[in-house]
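Feature request disguised as a bug: please show the residue count (158) next to 3-hydroxyacyl-[acyl-carrier-protein] dehydratase FabZ in the output. Example input:
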Amino acid sequence: MTDTPETGTPTSADIQLIQRILPHRYPFLLVDRVVDIDGTSTATGIKNVTMNEPHFQGHFPGNPIMPGVTIIEAMAQTAAVMVGTTMNLVDGNMLIYFMGIDATKFRRKVVPGDQLLMKVETTRGKPGGKVWKFKGVATVDGEMAAEAEFTAMMDLQS
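Example output, currently without the count:
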């Protein structure tokens, strides 16, 4: 984890920090690292796709393809880590719920051995607000795999 010198806010999150922000755990924790966190504006998530993930057992056995919905979920988890680090929600017992998924397109298969890079940007939302909107683009080797706009609600548990 690296911090911005001026604010002390993390500009990256390793798996230990991610787990302190997100409630997700195996098999549904879908982001391994988040880098280039620029406040609540933008961030890039990294997902190393491996054959031992449970969805590959049933999602086209013999021709494993990462389900599109899990790619969108991985983008959403990246956005949640971005917001969580910036708003100091580490160990904050935060739950996040999808409210909408729009303008979604899938462009290429994501398979075991791929590294999925998910660039997310906030299009609406502010610290203290509950409803946020994001745009995400997921790529593999510079080639677009998926894109989506999604809206989420943050619920901070007491």
